[in-house]
Give the backbone structure.
Amino acid sequence: MLRKIWEHRADYAYVLPAIAVMLVVIAYPIYYTIDLSFFNTPPGLQLRDKTFVGFNNYTTILTSAVFWKVTWNTLIWTVGSTVISFVLGFAAALALHRDFFGRGVLRAILIIPWVISAVAASYIWKWIYHSDFGIIGAVLVGLGLADRPPNFIDSVSTVLPSLIVVNIWREFPFAMIMMMAGLQTVPDQLLRAAKVDGANAWQRFWHVTFPHLSNVSTVTILLLAVANFNSFIIPWIMTGGGPSNASHIWITHIYELAFGRQRWGVASAYSVLLFIILMTLGYFYVRALSGNDRRDEGA
Amino acid sequence: MSTIAETSRRGQAHRRMRIDGWRWGGRIFLVFMLLYTALPMAWMLITSIKSGFAAMQFPPQWWPDQPTLASYQKLLDPQNSVGQDFLRFFWNSLYVSAATTVLSVIVAVPAAYAFSRFTFPGRNFLFFTVLLRNMFPAVIFLVPLFILMRAIGLVNTHGSLVLTYLTFGLPLAIWLLKGFYDNIPVQLEQAARIDGATRFQAFILIVMPLSTPGIIATAIYSFIGAWNEYIYAYTFLSKNEQLTLPVGIQRFFSENTTDFPGLMAASFMMSVPVVVLFLVLQRYFVRALTEGAVKH
Amino acid sequence: MAHVVLKDLVKTYGSFKAVNEVSLTVNDGEFVALVGPSGCGKTTTLNLIAGLIPITSGDIVIGDQVVNDLDPKDRDIAMVFQNYALYPQKSVYMNLAFPLQMRRLPKAEIDKKVREAARVLDMTQLLERKPRELSGGQQQRVALGRALVRDPAVFLMDEPLSNLDAKLRVQMRSEIKRFHQDLKATIVYVTHDQLEAVTMADRMAVMNGGYLQQYDSPAQVFAHPANMFVASFVGSPAMSLIPLEASTANGDTVLKSAEGWSLGLSQLNARKAQRATGRKVVLGARHSTIKLHKSAVPGAIPAKAYTVEPTGDVTFVQALLSGAIVNISVSPNIAVKPDEQIWLEFDQERMHLFDGETEMALEAA
Ligand SMILES: Nc1ncnc2c1ncn2[C@@H]1O[C@H](COP(=O)(O)OP(=O)(O)OP(=O)(O)O)[C@@H](O)[C@H]1O
Ligand SMILES: [Mg+2]
C-alpha cells in the first residue's frame, strides 16, 4: 500500500491544493464543532472559560418545544420548495425543449432569478409582500378579493408558504437548466424509434425521455433538497424567523443561538445533529453523483 | 375501403388535437412562469424610479407619475456618503469575487484532471470528500471558522472570505470539470506526449483548451456564488469599509428603513453584473452541464 | 531508423496479466504486424513500447538504448492511434506542426516540413481545415502525416485502418506499404485483421491472451502454424480442425474418427502422429487442400454436404465431419447440393497435425 502511494506520489500533487483548502475549511471545523458541543460557553466567545457538560446540550435541544417546531418548519420548507421547484423547472424545460420564436429570450428571463442574489430577492419580495404598500395586497383589494391587504409575512399562518414562494422563484430555474441539459442528451434515435413503434407524445415521454432522465432528476432533486435544507438568507432577511418562530428553520435557528444569544455549545450540538442528518442525505447524494462515474485509466 | 380511410383520418385528427393540447398547455404554462418570474423584477425596476413619497401610496401607482433616477444618482455619486459607501461595497464585492474565481479555477482544474485520469490510492475517498463539502451549510462551519480566522488574524479581511468561498465553489467545479476530462480521449494526450510534449505540456496545450467551456462555467459559478454570498460576509466582516454588497446594502438601508426606491435601485445595481455575466456566457454553462455533468 | 527489442515484457493490471513475457526483436527497417483477437494485449504492448504506460517487468530496447524509464517524448517514436487522436481544436496544419513545435524547430523549417508531408500525402488543400471537417480517410492521412513529419526512429501504428470502409482500407493498405518501402522505416503495426498482417508485414507476431503465440514471416505462419490458435486465426476462411484419435492398425499409424472411419497417413505425418498414439490428435486442413469427390475414391472420407455458398470464382462447401465443420473450396462448375453424399480427400503434404491436449503442432520424431 505504502509502495503504491509512493509510486503515485506525482498524482497527488494535482489534488493537493484542493485537499489542503478542504482540510482547513472542513475537517478542522467539523472536529471543532463536535468538541464544542459538549461544552457550555460563556457569552463573548471567551472559550478558555468553557465548561464540560457532557450530553447536556443535546438533551436541552431534544426536550425543547422550539426544536420540534423548527424541525417541522424545516421539513415543510425543504420538501415544499424542492418538490415544487423541481416540477416547475422540469415542466418549463419540457415546454422550452421544442424550438419556437423567442425561446432564447424567454429562457434567459426565466433563469435570471437564479442568478441574482438571494439578498436582492428577499428585498424585492419583502416589498411585494409589504403589508401597507405591497403590490399583491393592492391587487387582491383591487379585485375585491380582500377588504384590506393581507399580512403575508407578519402572520403565523401565511409566513412559511409566502417564503416558500420566494424560494421557488429563485430555485426553479436551476431545476430547469439541469433538466434542459438532460433533455439534450436524450438520443433522437430512441425517440424516433418509439415514434415508429407507434408511441404517442405522452408514451414517448414516459417510456423514453423520463427513464433517460432518471439520473439527472435524482441529482437535481438532491442538490435542491440539500440547498433548501441549508437555506438561510431568505428567512433571515425577510422575517428573521418570526413571527414567533413561525418561519425559523434549522439554520436560522442555529445562527440565532450562536451569534444572537451566544450559546455556542447548544448551537454546536445542533450543528452535530444537522451533520448526522446531512451525512445520511449525503450518502445518497454521493451515490447519485458518482452513479455515472466509473472509469479507470491505466496511465 | 371508405370506412378505413375515415377511421384513419379521424385517428389523425385525434392525434393532432392531442399534440396541440400538449403544446397549448406548454404555452400557457410558460406564460404563467414568465409572469411569475418577470413581474417581481419589473416591480423592482418600477419602484426604483419612484420618489420615496410616490412609493408609499395605496393603491400603488402602477407607473410612477413622475419617474426619477434620483435613487440611482444617489447610489453612484461619490460625493454623497451613501454613494461613497455603495461604490466601495461594489468594489469590495468585485475584488473578492474575482479573487475567488481565479483561485477556484487554479485549484479545481488540476484536481478535476487528476480525479479523471489517475488511479491513485484513496482517489475515490478524496473525490467523495470533496463532493460532500456541498452538503454542509455555512452555519456548521461558521463558529469554528470564525474562531479559526480570529486565530490566524484573518477576521475583518477579505482573505477570510476568499478562502471560505473557495471551498463551496470547488466541489461543483471539480465535479463539472471531471465530467469534461472524462470525455476527452486519453489518446489525445498520449499523442501529444509522443509528439514530444511532457505530461504537463500535454495538459496545458491539448486538454485545457478542450475544456474551456467547463472552465468558463466553473468561473461563472464561482463568481456568482462569491458575489451573492451573505452569511460569511455578514459574520466575518464588521468594519464598514470592508463590507461586500449583500451585507452592506442591508446595513445602509436599516438606517433609513423606509427608502424602498433606494433599496430597489441598489438591488438592481447589485444584480446587474452577475446577470449580464451569466447571460453573456450562459451557453457555456448549459454546454458544460450537458457535456460534463449530465452525461450518461 | 533503429531496431526494437522486447525482452520478457510483462504488464499486469492488479492480478490480471495483460502482457505476458513477450520477447521479440524488430529489425531495423522491418515491418512487423502485431495481430490477435480483441483484448489480447496488442494495444497494451504498443503503449509499453511507446512509454505511455509503465512496464511491470522486462526490458525494452530502441536503437541501442534501454528505454524502460524514458518519457515517450524522449524515445524518438511516432504513433498513429486507432481513433487518430487528432487535436480537435487545431487545424490540419497545426496538427502536423505540433510535434515539430514541441521540438522547438525554427518556424521556417516547420513550415517546410509540414508542407512537404502534406504534399506527400496529397492533402495540401486540406491544411486549413479542422479535423471534424475531414472524412475518415482524410483524418487517417493527417494522423499518418503527423507521424511522418518527425522522421522518427520507429513508427507505432494501432489499427490505423480499422475505422475505414473496405475499399478505402485496401487503398490505404497499399499506401502505408509503399510508405514503408520508400522510407525503409521500422514499423510496428497493430491489427486484429489477419489479412492486413499477412499482406503488409515482413513478419507477424500473433498474440493471444497476453502471450506471444508465434513470430515469423506471414508465409511461415501460414504454412507452419505453431499451434491450433494460430492455425485457426490466420487464413480465411479459417482452417478446419477435426478432432480425431491416433491409433495403430496393422503396424500403420492412422487417425481414427469416433464416426468409425479412419484416415491413413503419409510417412512423415505418421511419424508426427506416433508421438501422440492413443491420444487426441487434431487434424487441420485449409479449404484449398481438401479435394471434394462426388463418388467414393480410395483414401477419401465419406461426408455430407451441409451448406453450399457460391461466391462467383469459387464455391465454398461446408461439410460435417466427426462433429466438426469442414470448409472446402471447389470450382464453381462442380455442382454440389446440400445433404448430398460427398467424399473428402486430404492433401498429406499440406495437412497439419496438432496434439489434442497441448494444442501445439506435432513435430516428426
Ligand atoms: N487500464 C487498464 N486496466 C485494467 N485492464 C486493462 C487496462 N487496459 C487494458 N486492460 C485489459 O488488458 C487487456 C488487453 O487490452 P488491449 O487494449 O491491449 O487489447 P487489444 O489487443 O488492443 O484489443 P483491441 O483489438 O480490442 O483493441 C484487455 O483484457 C483489457 O481489458
Ligand atoms: Mg487495441
In short: Residues 2-39 of chain B form one domain.
